[in-house]
Specification:
single chain, about 400 residues, alpha/beta, eight-stranded mixed β-sheet, 8 strands, globular
Amino acid sequence: MQLPHATHTAYDTGFYSEGRDYSVRCLLGTSNAGGADVGEVLATISGLKGGGQAWFDAWLRLGRRVRHEADASAAGGHRVSAAWAYLRAANYLSMAVDAVDELPTAEQRLPVFREHRAAWESFIDHGPFDAHRLTIPYEDTTLPGWFLAPLHPDGGRPTLVMINGSDGAVSGQWSAAARGALERGYNVVMFDGPGQQSMLFEHQIPFRPDWEAVLTPVTDVVLQQPGVDSDRLALYGISQAGYWVPRSLAFEHRYRAAIADPGVVDVATSWMDKLPSPLRTELAAGKRDSFDRDMGIGMKLSSATKREFDWRARPYGATGYFETYVAVQEYRLTDELAAQIRTPMLVTAPEHEQFWPGQSARLVGMVGGGAELMEFTAADGASWHCQPMARAMTDQRMFDWLDVKLA
């Protein structure tokens, strides 16, 4: 779906693709929480033509310009101005990080990711909250995290632990739910899990399907933080975390309420639905060599398809086409696991969900009376995956639900 016709005509003469269009929608959606300036975004895509290099250059240029302005505000003692400029810079630079996949090589990814993360850390240092960094023990390493609390808090408070999706930047989580939680008196915890952001780009640690092995040590650390009411823990997961939330809750029972935005029962369907029938047959029959050969032939016919596969496959840590598809099929919630969930769960269901259609309702059906479906519609401007242009509405509805559950 393209941007609305009037906007598309006025501001876009060459940037359009479905992936880029969705990315711009997500970025515009963060403006409600200070994560972008609509004028900056529209000016960046206005008249933008050419391939991936032009797209990458445009976001890198904008991110660096806004970061420079943030530094100037900080140097002048303008803390509020600096904070919001750093946040915008972090989101614009994350667009450049994502755009690296359209470049001939990936050499730019790590240095630009580090620019993005530096802007985010500067936002943490200047933002309107109390904050400290977390070092979360995880197997033989640690996960980076951030603990945010409302300014001048009083007593124990509810705490929202956030799980990111498959490829989202941590700065995007601010607009997804963190800002809304802080405004309502919640503490907020964000972290990079295995396969996400710094753990992938800097440490090459991949995803895992059994996310309870991640959430349990995270929760242990959360409960050690000052001002955390252990009886009022809430869990939120966006995009692919709509699978990790219910999977974790089948084993981790210390949460009083949870939100899956949206619900995901079987991650692999977003892969399998696009796979030609002969390849599905080879995969099901375990014909590794012929599957890899035929996939390789297909990838040679479309560089865009090859780039998309490489981008989606990277966090799974598998080698080869066959092994990647086998790995993705492990990310599936069974009826037996769903029966173990005790935590009340809210599951969002946006109209025109393009990655896992129908799975929110399926998740609610599997969990039973402990889960509630919250639908979002195109008529309300709240369609597509994670309803990117309706985050204020999403905040209103899900926090009204959470406030009741945590009372």
